[in-house]
Design goal:
The structure holds 2 protein chains of 2 kinds. By secondary structure, chain A is an all-alpha fold. Chain A has helices at 2-22, 27-33, 37-47, 68-79, 86-93, 97-108. Chain B is built from 12 helices and 24 strands. Classes of the chains: A mainly alpha, B alpha/beta.
Chain lengths: 114, 422
């Protein structure tokens, strides 16, 4: 899982670089642009049962203060079942792009773990 | 008495003056008032979200009988010797101090839906605009011949946490070497469908170390149970020969329990126990009946909002509700509370009301680092809460996956308790 995450991060950075050269908007940015933060706060209450502010080293990571684009990439990876965890596949599986964008806006504004 | 400070309200002095002054609604200004009965998985979450998200725009009172809430979730983990009892206890300071919830430690004894008033054990009344009822379960002791509140310390149910769970742990630890432990799970529907079988797993884990020739017999009133394949495979692997599950089809029904001789009489045989856990049938907590929102043992709700079908000003959460197809779990109650909180704020303050969405995940520990999970997401149908998608652990999961599940469950425990009480 860790390796996969790393590969995804690499991919994002490469893509960001490629796109910025051509002044294009990435899929992630487009999804974030659809978001509504108030909706994100409501949708995010579902996540709070498992993801809490301080997070943990193993098990369930904290998602507070996560970069919005990284957040979207990860959610899309769970939704497409590229990433394995069945809980997160179920959670992401029922979120449309607007909802993922709303959540990205909301979580990226929260205070990251200390 | 233009304003009652929250702290003052909690003191007997304020309670007395509130009683005599009949608690005029103007005393709290024009703030809409929510009263929540029951500070468990459903009620604490609802109180917290309404207070937090309305930023002081709604006056929230939480009526909870106990000063400390010991979670039923993870009580089995305690029984297995993985945690101490103190670690599953929580208080209400966070709700009072961080969220400004007015926490009243009393029993709610009745509800007057027409006057929109809750009456407390002290005789005081609290008015509400919206009422949330999340009292959990009461036990139907007489659902089993020979079982009663009078013998519950001899054969603990330990299904409402508290001292019963500690008692059960002592009885497990002190059972005679090579003795027989009898577990009687409840009939459907009941709180925490995999709970009795996780409990058996945890007792077996304890026996493996302290009483390796001990036996466990499960006299089930049901012909099948939650995550059955996963539990049975786990029992075979970790506790071969120790656990015998006897289906209702095989024993033909529990006819009688004799608490003094510790005998369990069925059509098949009479079983003699050296220690036992007996969990009777269940129903919604009594205050739900007093509020008149029940239909029989449980309370029907509107799937889109968790409003009672009997009274639109009353919301019923958690175990007490008929939240078909959601299981009665802490996770479900917490999830339902967020939908209700959003709906209540909308009704009282005009904030935006979003679509109802529910989810649940239940982890069960079978043995150290062998944890299985089952979960689903739900949507509000017209008549019931319907399953949208679901998952369950696989028989051929790697041992890393099973160990990761246990880590997840610990983080979930920390997450949900913070989501209820911080
Ligand atoms: C052994 C066991 C293991 C479990 N494991 C899990 C698990 O792993 N995951 C999971 O999600 N769920 C689990 N559960 C289920 C979970 O505990 C319940 O489903 C959950 O607590 C239900 O929440 P609730 O709000 O309906 O009731 P509760 O959490 O029981 O809260 C009700 C509260 O209301 C108070 N109250 C009741 N009546 C009144 C009144 N008249 N006045 C004032 N206060 C009142 C009570 O004191 C109590 O604090 C388990 C249960 C058991 C028994």
């Amino acid at each position: 899982m860790k390796i996969l995450l790393f590969v995804i991060f690499l991919l994002i950075s490469v893509c960001k670089f490629a796109f910025s050269e051509e002044q294009q908007i990435s899929d992630e940015q487009e999804i974030i642009a659809m978001g509504d933060i108030e909706y994100g706060e409501y949708l995010g209450s579902e996540c709070a049962a498992c993801h809490h502010q301080s997070g943990a080293s193993e098990g369930i990571p904290s998602i507070h203060g996560m970069d919005a684009e990284v957040f979207v990439t990860l959610m899309l990876a769970y939704r497409s079942k590229l990433m394995e965890n069945p809980v997160m596949q179920m959670i992401a599986g029922r979120l449309n792009n607007e909802q993922i964008g709303s959540l990205a806006l909301y979580f990226s504004k929260l205070e990251p773990p200390k | 008495m233009s304003k009652i400070s929250r702290r003052l309200f909690n003191t007997g002095l304020a309670a007395a003056s509130v009683g005599t002054l009949a608690f005029p609604s103007i005393s709290l200004g024009a703030l809409p008032r929510v009263v929540v009965i029951g500070g468990g998985a459903g009620g604490a979450t609802a109180a917290r979200y309404i207070a937090k998200d309305s930023n002081g725009g709604v006056h929230v009172t939480l009526v909870e009988a106990s000063k400390r809430y010991y979670t039923c979730f993870f009580s089995n983990i305690y029984l297995g010797g993985f945690r101490n009892y103190g670690s599953i206890g929580h208080n209400y300071y966070g709700l009072a101090v961080n969220q400004g919830v007015n926490v009243v430690h009393e029993w709610a004894v009745s509800v007057d839906p027409a006057a929109r008033m809750v009456k407390l054990g002290s005789g005081n009344t609290i008015p509400y605009d919206k009422l949330v009822v999340s009292p959990g379960i009461d036990l139907k002791y007489d659902s089993i011949n020979g079982y009663s509140a009078g013998v519950q310390d001899k054969m603990p149910h330990a299904w409402k946490s508290g001292t019963q769970v500690q008692l059960l742990r002592n009885q497990v630890m002190n059972m005679k070497q090579g003795g027989t432990f009898v577990m009687v799970p409840p009939p459907n529907p009941y709180r925490c469908p995999p709970g009795p079988y996780e409990r058996v797993s945890m007792i077996a884990h304890q026996f493996k170390q302290s009483n390796p020739t001990g036996k466990i017999v499960i006299l089930d009133p049901k012909p099948k149970f939650s995550k059955q394949g996963l539990f049975e495979a786990g029992w075979q692997k970790h506790y071969p020969g120790m656990i015998e599950w006897i289906s209702s089809d095989t024993h033909g029904g529990l006819k009688n329990i004799n608490a003094s001789t510790m005998e369990f009489e069925t059509d098949l045989d009479t079983f003699k126990a050296d220690a036992a856990c007996v969990v009777p049938a269940q129903k919604a907590g009594a205050i739900a009946m007093a509020a008149g929102v029940n239909d029989g043992d449980w309370c029907p709700i509107v799937p889109a909002s968790m409003q009672s079908k009997a009274d639109e000003n009353i919301y019923v959460l958690g175990d007490a509700s008929v939240a078909k197809s959601m299981p009665k779990s802490g996770f479900s109650a917490n999830s339902q509370a967020k939908v209700a909180a959003n709906h209540i704020r909308g009704a009282l303050t005009g904030s935006k009301v979003f679509d109802a969405r529910y989810s649940n995940t239940c982890w069960s520990l079978i043995a150290p680092d062998d944890d299985v999970k089952v979960g689903a997401s739900y949507v509000a149908g017209a008549e019931a809460i319907d399953v949208e998608s679901k998952f369950i652990s696989q028989a051929d999961d790697s041992s890393e996956t099973r160990a990761a599940n246990y880590q997840e469950s610990i983080d979930w425990y920390n997450g949900i308790t913070a989501d209820m009480f911080s």
